[in-house]
Write a structure and sequence with these properties.
The chain has two domains: about 70 residues, Orthogonal Bundle (Multidrug-efflux Transporter Regulator, Chain: A, Domain 2), CATH 1.10.1660; about 170 residues, Beta-Lactamase, CATH 3.30.450.40. About 35% of the residues lie in helices and about 20% in strands. The chain is built from nine helices and nine strands. Helix 1 packs across helix 2. The radius of gyration is 19 Å and the shape is globular.
């Protein structure tokens, strides 16, 4: 069967078909529950046929339901992701609508990994001694990672994003002990994997100055950044912003 007859799906597309979180699909793929393989860039892929085998529909509805799901899964990012929510459930700045328009215009969300951003997160992890580093972009529904080290998940719900606070603050945003911070102690990313205790994020801006997301580092232990470490993170965020401005 050719790829035209059996399309290749990303983890996000498979999750849309199955109606589950992308992190759930990633876990199923890693465990072998869904047949998959890794691209040279380390991203999981599967065939549509593997997902079809997991889908169940009532008799007489399977064709229409599956057809609609396939169309949604293979379509570009939903425009709703770039429209502000009426009741977002997370903190937003007054210019959130403008920020989302700028993020949409950047064309970065759901694009393949790029060496220029992968190098930046590796350096951020190294210079701060952090096990996790991310280039995080914030749509209205999710926090999607353009580059990441130390974290398997490609995205999380926007409601879980520490980076929302960093984008609003506009300056380096540091949480030294998330478990002791009332804003974050009940966050699923603190209570469960990756068990965040420390977070430091610096906004990433486009050429118009809009904060599209952050360069952030995360640790599983409470800690502080030394002055030189924070400055290195700021410098790397500036480099990442310059790369974003080239798009």
């Amino acid at each position: 069967m050719s790829n035209d007859e059996d399309p290749i799906l990303t983890t996000t597309a498979a999750a849309r078909l199955l109606g589950v979180a992308t992190s759930t699909v990633q876990m199923w793929m890693e465990s072998g529950a869904i047949a998959s393989w890794k691209t040279p860039g380390g991203h999981r892929r599967t065939h549509l046929s593997a997902i079809q085998g997991l889908m169940e529909s009532p008799p007489g509805q399977a064709s229409a339901t599956l057809g609609q799901a396939i169309e949604a899964a293979l379509s570009p990012v939903s425009p709703d992701e770039f429209a502000p929510r009426e009741e977002p459930g997370y903190p937003v700045a007054r210019d959130e609508a403008t920020r989302l328009v700028a993020l949409s215009a950047s064309g970065l969300v759901d694009t393949p990994a790029e060496a220029r951003f992968d190098r930046i997160v590796r350096l951020a992890a190294h210079v701060t001694g952090s096990p996790i580093a991310l280039v995080s972009l914030l749509t209205s529904t999710r926090q999607w990672f353009k580059a990441r080290v130390g974290l398997e998940a490609q995205e999380t719900p926007r409601e879980w994003a520490f980076c929302s606070h960093a984008v609003i603050d506009g300056n380096p945003f540091v949480v030294e002990d998330a478990a002791a911070d009332p804003r974050f102690r009940d966050n699923p990313l603190v209570q469960g994997d990756p068990k965040i205790r420390f977070y430091a994020g610096v906004p990433l801006r486009d050429r118009g100055g809009q904060a599209l997301g952050t360069l952030c580092v995360i640790d599983r232990e409470p800690r502080r950044l030394r002055g030189a470490e924070l400055q290195a993170l700021i410098d790397l965020a500036d480099i990442a912003s310059e790369e974003i401005a080239k798009k």
